[in-house]
UniProtKB/TrEMBL annotation:
It comes from the Eukaryota. The keyword tRNA processing does not apply. Residues 10-520 form the Glycosyltransferase family 18 catalytic domain. PANTHER family: ALPHA-1,6-MANNOSYLGLYCOPROTEIN 6-BETA-N-ACETYLGLUCOSAMINYLTRANSFERASE, ALPHA-MANNOSIDE BETA-1,6-N-ACETYLGLUCOSAMINYLTRANSFERASE. This is alpha-1,6-mannosyl-glycoprotein 6-beta-N-acetylglucosaminyltransferase. Its EC number is 2.4.1.155. It is a single-pass type II membrane protein. Belongs to the glycosyltransferase 18 family. It is found in: Golgi apparatus membrane.
Amino acid sequence: MIECEDRRKNCRTKANTTTDLKGLMCILVDLNEREAYTWIRRRIRRLWSGWIKAIFSLEKKQDLTRRVRKKILLYLGFAANKTGWNFVEGQLKGMGGLSRKKCRLSLEINTEIYINILIKSPEVNAPCQNLHQLPIDILYIDIVGLKQFKEFVKDGYPKFRLFLSIQCLVRVLDSFGTEPEFNSAMYSNVRKLVSPWTGLDLDTQQFFTFFPHSPDNSFMGFVAEQRQQLGQPIEKKDIALVYGKRPEFFQNRRPYLELISKFFEIHTTVPYGGPFIPSFVKNHGLLSGHELHKLLRAAKVFVGLGFPYEGPAPLEAIAEGAIFINPKYDPPRNRDNVGALHDKPTRRGLTSQHPYAEQFIGEPYVYTVNIYSFNDIVEALKKIKQITQFKPYIPYEYTEEGMLQRVNAYVENQNFCLFQRQPSKWPPAETVTFILGQNGMSCKDVCSLKDLICERSYFREINSIDAFKHHNVSCSGDYGIPDILVPAYDVFTSNCVLQNDELLYSCVGGHLNFRRLCPCRTYIKGQSALCKGCDK
């Protein structure tokens, strides 16, 4: 379905939904020697029936007929080989879940050749660039790939101009999240917050995370794989499966595991053995996806060891009816007290191995315990032992339908190109409320107290003296600074402090001197990325 025939009018093709898997698989079939792509192919096949059910279900709830087909480029830096970069390039129809599209993909594109083609494109070299005429509408790239890309284009004026042209089209897949103070090159350098992942100078909502860590970023998520109908009991054995990818994860965990072994037979799936794995733990070695999920369906308990942080495995275990024992951290772990987090571009503190499971799921599916406390562990194990029915559970935002709904909303509505702002702002203004917080509180906490979520894209709407006057605040004076704590009211000087660097608008900063003025939006329970009404 074409909107018009005249190319001079920037005609765009309407997006259509497809359930064709064969076309996608034939593109990936030539990559048998690449382990990363083999895993992708297998997972797509396993989940395909779920994607099809999800799209048909979503079409009954939303009008998906008005969407324009987007040209989307996907680059996976983690899968790049040593001699070149490997692109998965596609013109994707329909919604944002990449495996749900009818795609025309071209793989193993040499980066230098590809960039040279773009540089020679008349649209790129035109004095006044129109991004609607560029070869892509959106570039999805992981944070490793973004660093590679910036290093590649930094030399030479044409390449540098190309990156500036498409920077607002970038969507960075960033599992841990990036906060504004680390994203701003100027601010992070002044504060000596230097790591491989700082100073990228994007709008921080261009970073897409695994979990809804911070409202400064966009929550992309993933689909928690499950083979059983949600809510239906599963027959289980007295098995506890340990979440440990490598032998060293078991170090200093013997007393904890010995206590669990008094209640359950302990299994694990470490690819190779080691001195830290107790002899009473049955190690199955590396399993295929099918075999692993079969073991998860048999297990009553999925045992966290405290590391790795925030992985997808606990959600997939819960989706197979297993109960997750989630190690608690006191004090919370962050970049200042744990070496593994030192380079992460965030000050977020982890209160447990899996904060999402702790905060958004909880009992009876998740027991967050101090694994060094005999009483805490025994109490949790006794509760689990009393459970007679083990039912699969997945939060809606981690189902196929939930992800399709969320990504579709992003693809259709998010726009980070300042000179191409859409007439209607997203999220809609009627879903946003402005609140003056108490001193010392971050906007994330100010909004949370009202059961709302901080909406970073609306900070510019309240970065003015008039906004403070509207909240009955009389400012003795005003000044602008580049800092994550503003706009805010300084309670000691009675000044209104405004933001003069938009990259530093932040939901997470707080200081006792300041009462922050915060934009807060509504959200859908189980789909926190979307405001109420944003799912239509």
